[in-house]
Amino acid sequence: MKQTLGIDLGSVRIGLALSDELGWMAHPWQTLSRSPRSVEEIARLAVEKKITTIVVGLPRNLNGTYGPAAEHCRAFAQELQKQTEAKVVLWDERFTTAMATRQLQEAGRNQKQQRSIIDQAAAQQILQDWMDAAAAKQQ
Fold it and tell me: How many structural domains are present in the chain?
């Protein structure tokens, strides 16, 4: 079965989330430390998990414009596309970290507990939003 990978790209950490095999639910997967080899590591993981689509969160400013962080995400996505056969798409990630933080707080996680999984939760939100939009488009 095919799976989709969601990425929340940060300057220090990269949150990863995976879809279920039916493409209905996104699940937090792991957090990587950002390094010069991050693209290669993610491309390797994509092959291992038989990923067909990779959704990279694209940060936008509240007014809809793009800043330096968006340019880093675009460059990362372009490099990743060169190293994998999976389709790489960019997806608006506005408010995903805030939503993930709120959900973790509602689940009873304090800030210290959130630190290790917030990036995964943000990647999960990015991936779930993309899957929901794709499902709505098919209806």
Answer: 1
CA pair distance 25, 94, nearest whole angstrom: 20
Task: Look at residue 93 and give its three-state secondary structure.
Answer: coil
Give the pLDDT confidence of 2-53 residue by residue, as tens digits: 899 999 999 899 999 999 988 899 999 999 999 999 999 999 999 999 999 9
H/E element holding 70?
helix 68-83
- The tokens describing 135, both together, are 């499902």
Query: Do 54 and 5 meet the contact criterion of CB atoms below 8 Å apart?
Result: yes
CATH of the domain at 21: 3.30.420.140
Angle, helices 68-83 vs 38-48, to 10°: value is 50
Cβ neighbours of residue 129 closer than 8 Å, sequence gap 6 or more: 91, 96
- Domain of 37 in residue numbering reads as 3-57+66-138
CA 87 and chain centroid, separation: 14
